[in-house]
């Protein structure tokens, strides 16, 4: 029994780490590279989960020609179990539901990311942050009060697209899928960060006027950063929803955004390796607190201990390592325009000497 508990604990930790790596990578692209304080990260995380909660049961019913009679809020869990039983006999049904919800989540997240980028064209960072917080809360409140979307306060059931595998193979496959998806997304982010696109984003972050004077379109750069980052966060929401098995709007409050921001700051903003370090540090402290808080005698609610400890960790890291545990390294490659100017100057000097 102890061995089984340890195995499931490791599986739980690895899946959550994969989800947080995706979220931290998406925020690091937007904030660390482009300088956009996306305080609506919880909203784009929720979009992926809401896509699963709203569509997995309905798509399964369409594929199975099953009538959904009654209130979605009251019956979604029962319908999800019914569809999952059919998935247990037909693995391709589960695969089709997973792929369809993933595509919808990425498309919706990308479109809303583009729409959210428009205020960034006119507002300063502080006003932009406040506006995006309001945007995030608006999406959560709409989902919480519009029952047909994800069941409102009751939440929505999620089809188990791996029901055909059975336990513990199901958990192992979900772990493998989460790790592979997280690795692919991190590699995409790493490639973007070390490419001319990433160097241009950092140039825009440091000096917009100089970047624009070199012919770069600031509007397009911000839009692309928000679109890519939002699509990444939506993928994390899809994995999280299928892992938890239910979707509830109250799981995606603004505190989730600040938690992801904490991971980025601790790991290292602007460094591609920061999204790997930050979630690991957070999960290590979070699990340690979970194990010890019930054994401590405290003058306050033990549930608030994690906020205190993580706040202290953040203060220490910012004080001792302002750039995070793995701070951003200076770019060694010169921008293309500067290389061209230097090359032209060397040609002119050679011509003058001759």
Automatic annotation (TrEMBL):
Q: Pfam families from the entry? A: BPD_transp_2
Give the record's membrane topology. Answer: Multi-pass membrane protein
Ranges annotated as spanning the membrane: 6-27, 39-64, 92-115, 172-192, 223-243, 258-285, 297-318
Q: Name one GO cellular component term.
A: plasma membrane
Where located?
Cell membrane
Concerning CDD domains, the annotation shows: TM_PBP1_LivM_like
UniProt keyword annotations, A-Z: Cell membrane, Membrane, Transmembrane, Transmembrane helix
Q: Name one GO molecular function term.
A: branched-chain amino acid transmembrane transporter activity
Q: Please indicate which superkingdom the organism of origin belongs to.
A: Archaea
Where does it primarily localize?
A: membrane
Protein name in the entry: Branched-chain amino acid ABC transporter permease
């Amino acid at each position: 029994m102890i061995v089984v508990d340890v195995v499931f604990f490791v599986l739980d930790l690895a899946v959550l780490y994969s989800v947080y790596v995706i979220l931290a990578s998406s925020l690091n692209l937007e904030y660390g590279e482009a300088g956009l304080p996306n305080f609506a990260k919880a909203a784009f995380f929720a979009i992926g989960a809401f896509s699963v909660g709203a569509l997995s049961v309905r798509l399964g019913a369409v594929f199975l020609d099953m009538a959904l009679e009654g209130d979605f809020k009251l019956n979604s869990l029962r319908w999800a179990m019914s569809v999952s039983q059919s998935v247990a006999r037909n693995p391709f049904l589960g695969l089709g539901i997973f792929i369809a919800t993933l595509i919808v989540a990425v498309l919706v997240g990308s479109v809303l990311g583009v729409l959210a980028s428009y205020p960034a064209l006119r507002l300063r960072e502080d006003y932009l942050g406040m506006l995006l917080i309001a945007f995030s809360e608006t999406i959560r409140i709409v989902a919480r009060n519009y029952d047909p979307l994800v069941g409102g306060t009751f939440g929505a059931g999620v089809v188990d697209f791996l029901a055909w595998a059975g336990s513990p193979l199901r958990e192992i496959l979900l772990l493998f899928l989460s790790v592979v998806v997280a690795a692919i997304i991190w590699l995409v982010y790493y490639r973007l960060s070390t490419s001319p696109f990433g160097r241009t984003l950092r140039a825009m972050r440091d000096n917009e006027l100089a970047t624009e004077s070199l012919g770069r379109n600031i509007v397009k750069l911000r839009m692309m950063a928000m679109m890519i980052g939002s699509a990444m966060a939506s993928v994390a929401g899809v994995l999280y929803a299928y892992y938890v098995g239910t979707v509830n709007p109250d799981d995606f409050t603004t505190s989730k955004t600040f938690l992801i921001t904490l991971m980025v700051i601790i790991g290292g903003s602007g460094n591609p390796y920061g999204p790997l370090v930050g979630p690991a540090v957070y999960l290590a402290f979070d699990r340690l607190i979970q194990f010890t808080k019930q054994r401590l005698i405290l003058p306050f609610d033990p549930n608030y201990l994690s906020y205190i400890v993580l706040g202290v960790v953040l203060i220490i890291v910012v004080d001792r390592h302002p750039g995070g545990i793995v701070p951003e390294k200076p770019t060694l490659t010169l921008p293309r325009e500067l290389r061209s100017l230097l090359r032209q100057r060397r040609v002119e000097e050679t011509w003058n000497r001759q």
